[in-house]
Amino acid sequence: MAAVDLHQAGIRPAPQAAQQQEDGRHSTQVANTIHSYQKFGDWVRRDSQGREVSVLDASSGLGLGTRHLNEMGITTEDVEPYPSADRPAPTFRSYSDVDKQYDYIISNAVLNVLPEDWRRDVLRNMAVRLKPGGKMLINVRGAKSIINQGKEG
């Protein structure tokens, strides 16, 4: 599995500007998610050099990133063990249901919110679903971002 430095790949956080949406999510959450996945998608396109690839969005949350990548024309499936009722059903509800391997696996702002004793198993579950030579993109939020959550506006 090849590690990718997100800063070298040109993936940077989106600017902050908060507003509460009707469904209770902050606009910063939505904007940051879409911004990150746009960058992920742009990087996957460059890295794959135009060939058809498969992507797994690991622990996809509300499914916003999965939808965005598919709208970009990048075939993306997702796994979300704890899906909200406010989202379309994920492709898979459990890592054990994922029965194939992918060229790319994206984990966006997941590992930093998992209990420490779960991280090894989650990473292992992701890694075994990578094709040989596949790449995993992992984005974690920094401590400053977590401390400031909800204080943007």
Topology:
Blueprint: E1 2-3, H1 27-48, E2 55-58, H2 64-71, E3 76-79, E4 102-108, H3 116-127, E5 130-139, H4 143-147
Parallel strand pairs: 1-5, 2-3, 2-4, 4-5
Helix pairs in contact: 1-2
Number of strands: 5
Total helical segments = 4
Write down the overall geometry.
globular
Lateral arrangement of strands in the main beta sheet: 1-5-4-2-3
Radius of gyration: 15 Å
Strand content bin:
15-25%
For the report, how would you describe the main beta sheet? Answer: 5 strands, parallel
Structural class: alpha/beta
Q: What is the CA-CA span between the terminal residues?
A: 39 Å
SSE run: EHEHEEHEH
Estimated helix fraction: 25-40%
- Uncertain ranges: 10-21
What is the mean predicted local confidence, pLDDT?
79
Overview features:
single chain, 153 residues, 18% strand, 5-stranded parallel beta sheet, 31% helix, 4 helices, alpha/beta
Commentary on this structure:
- The structure is a single chain.
- The protein has 153 residues and is an alpha/beta fold.
- Helix content is 31%, strand content 18%.
- The chain has helices spanning 27-48, 64-71, 116-127, 143-147; strands at residues 2-3, 55-58, 76-79, 102-108, 130-139.
- A five-stranded parallel sheet has the order 1-5-4-2-3, with helices on one face.
- The model is unreliable at 10-21 (pLDDT under 50).
